[in-house]
Structures are given as structure tokens and as C-alpha cells.
């Protein structure tokens, strides 16, 4: 009949469009349960061109993530509810089981009774867009000058870390400030001051153990966060190494009078908020500064 002819023409148009682009066309017959891919699926997948009992195969699959399965189930439910067009981002196993991000778009065609009959759609590889987005997000989290995490980013990490602490863990926060930084700027110039800031940042990154987060939270103020086994010893050793590593900063072959005041505080699960931990570490840092500078103080 006319409706079947129109449907067939639509399918042929989708196949032609898929062949002339990087879109992978598919047809999902809701009533009969099969899913059919256009021939160019081989560029991305090693799946057969036709999958019978598609939803059953999805449920039984051990290589498709649960979150991705739920997106496929949602497609079916939305179609049943009469949603004509759907669009999702979905992570799927491609060739050699390498996972990639795809954009899934599907338009439903209904039967005479208004029930979902055939879903016609596309999968398009969006890995490049995803990588660009992730790189942009990473750039937005970085302090552009020192390449450490910026204040907003390290505060967010800290709040996440304190919320996720396990029963036997503590979160350690180290706050450090460069002693007499204004005097260094006044005596040697701001270019020298910039050199000192970058040297401190590089040293913090170089000495940081695995799973430690480091960031710049102010002009010459920095932070490190660590949680895990033997946390107190690790943060103490790190602080000592920082003092030693920044005591011989050179500028034009001249040793600069650089020292750090370091405050450290810790919190067990539920013991205090991130803001309270920050206040404790900051107070400890100012105690170190007022007690002669170049020292480490535990809250």
C-alpha cells in the first residue's frame, strides 16, 4: 500500500544518506524485535547487520555498560509513549571492544493504530567533540599561570573528597604561603616574583605523591589535599620536602630568600565540613607565619 511504499522509500533514503556520510543508519522494528544496520556499520562495529531479539541481546550483553543499556530501554519506553524523535549520547563497545561515545538519534514511524512500528535512526561517532569538551573543562579548571588546579577546582575536589571518606580514612589539607613575597617582588621585580610562583608550583607538582591534588588558591597561596593510608606521615614528609625544595630558588645566579609557612589540618568522616577544615588549616598556616616563618604547624 501507499504507506508501505513511503516507508520503504524513507528507509532507502536513510541508507543512501548513511553511505555518503559518517552516520551509521539503523532500523529497529519494535513489533518484531529485530534491529538492522546499514552496511557501513563495519567502519565502527563488528556486529552483524541484523540482530534478532535485540532487547534480549542487550540485556544479556556483558560488554555494554548498564548506563548504556538503560538508554536503550528508555528509547523503547519513549517510543511506546508516542515520542516521535529521540536523541542521546551513549557509550558503546566498538571494534575490538574499545568503548566510544556516539550520538544516537531515532525517529519513530507508527502503524495505522498509532503504535510504534519502526524506529529509523543514526549513530554518529562523537569522540572528537567529547575530547574537545573534556580538554576545555580541564583547561577551565587550571590556574592559567601555574598550571595547578585553580581555586574553584581544588575546592570542588576537596568537597568531593571529604564527602567520600571511608570509615578508616582522613582528609589532610595543607595550605602554604610564600614568606615575604612582597619583599621579593619589591627587591627583585615582578618577573622574579613570577619565577618564584612557578618554581613553587612546579615543586609542589613534582613532589606530590599519587592521588594528591595540588592547587593555587590565591596570589602566593597554595593548597594540597590527600586522603588514604598513612596520610599523616605522607603529608608530613611532603611538607618537609616542600620546605627543602624551595629553600634554594635561584634568580640570575643569585639565591633568593624564599621560604614557606605551612599549615596542616585533617578531618575524619563526618567530623567537620570542608569550610571548617579549610579554616583550621589556614589558622595553622598563620601560626607558622607568626612563629618565625619557614615552619610547619599542625592544627
Write a brief caption for the model.
The protein has 299 residues and is an alpha+beta fold. The protein has nine helices and 13 strands.
What is the H level of CATH, i.e. the homologous superfamily of the largest domain?
Reverse transcriptase/Diguanylate cyclase domain
So how many helices?
A: 9
Give the low-pLDDT segments.
Answer: 3-9
The SSE string, one letter per element, is: HEEEHHEEEHHEHHEEHEEEHE
Instruction: Determine the mean pLDDT.
Output: 86
Q: Return the structural class.
A: alpha+beta
Description:
By secondary structure, the protein is an alpha+beta fold. The chain has 2 domains: 2-129, PAS domain (Beta-Lactamase), CATH 3.30.450; 140-298, Alpha-Beta Plaits (2-Layer Sandwich). Helices cover 42% and strands 25% of the residues. It has 9 helices and 13 strands. The protein has helices spanning 2-19, 54-60, 66-80, 127-141, 151-163, 181-188, 190-207, 231-245, 274-290, and strands spanning 24-29, 35-37, 50-51, 85-93, 99-110, 116-125, 171-178, 213-216, 221-227, 250-251, 254-255, 260-267, 296-298. The strands form 3 sheets. A 6-stranded antiparallel sheet has the order 3-2-1-6-5-4, sandwiched between helices. A 5-stranded mixed sheet has the order 8-9-7-12-13, with helices on both faces. β5 (99-110) and β6 form a beta hairpin. α6 (181-188) crosses α7 and α7 (190-207) packs antiparallel against α8. The radius of gyration is 29 Å and the shape is elongated. The model is unreliable at 3-9 (pLDDT under 50).
Amino acid at each position: 500500500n501507499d504507506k508501505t511504499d513511503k516507508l520503504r522509500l524513507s528507509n532507502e533514503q536513510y541508507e543512501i544518506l548513511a553511505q555518503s556520510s559518517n552516520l551509521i543508519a539503523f532500523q529497529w522494528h519494535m513489533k518484531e524485535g529485530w534491529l538492522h544496520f546499514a552496511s557501513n556499520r563495519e567502519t565502527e562495529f563488528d556486529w552483524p547487520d541484523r540482530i534478532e531479539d535485540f532487547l534480549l541481546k542487550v540485556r544479556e550483553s556483558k560488554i555494554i555498560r548498564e548506563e548504556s543499556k538503560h538508554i536503550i530501554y528508555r528509547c523503547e519506553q519513549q517510543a511506546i509513549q508516542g515520542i516521535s524523535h529521540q536523541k542521546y549520547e551513549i557509550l558503546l563497545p566498538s571494534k575490538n571492544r574499545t568503548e566510544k561515545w556516539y550520538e544516537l538519534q531515532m525517529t519513530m514511524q507508527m502503524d495505522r493504530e498509532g503504535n510504534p512500528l519502526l524506529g529509523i535512526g543514526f549513530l554518529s561517532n562523537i569522540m572528537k567533540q567529547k575530547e574537545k569538551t573534556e580538554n576545555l573543562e580541564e583547561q577551565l579548571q587550571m590556574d592559567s599561570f601555574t598550571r595547578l588546579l585553580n581555586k574553584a577546582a581544588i575546592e570542588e575536589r576537596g568537597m568531593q573528597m571529604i564527602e567520600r571518606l571511608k570509615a578508616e580514612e582522613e582528609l589532610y589539607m595543607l595550605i602554604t604561603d610564600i614568606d615575604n613575597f612582597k619583599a621579593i617582588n619589591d627587591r627583585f621585580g615582578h618577573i622574579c616574583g613570577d619565577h618564584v610562583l612557578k618554581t613553587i608550583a612546579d615543586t609542589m607538582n613534582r613532589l606530590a605523591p599519587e592521588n594528591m591534588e595540588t592547587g593555587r588558591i590565591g596570589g602566593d597561596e597554595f593548597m594540597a589535599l590527600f586522603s588514604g593510608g598513612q596520610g599523616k606521615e605522607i603529608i608530613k614528609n611532603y611538607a618537609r620536602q616542600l620546605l627543602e625544595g624551595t629553600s634554594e630558588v635561584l634568580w640570575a645566579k643569585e639565591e633568593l630568600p624564599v621560604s614557606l609557612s605551612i599549615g596542616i589540618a585533617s578531618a575524619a568522616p563526618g567530623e567537620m565540613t570542608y569550610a571548617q577544615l579549610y579554616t583550621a588549616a589556614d589558622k595553622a598556616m598563620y601560626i607558622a607565619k607568626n612563629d618565625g616563618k619557614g615552619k610547619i604547624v599542625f592544627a
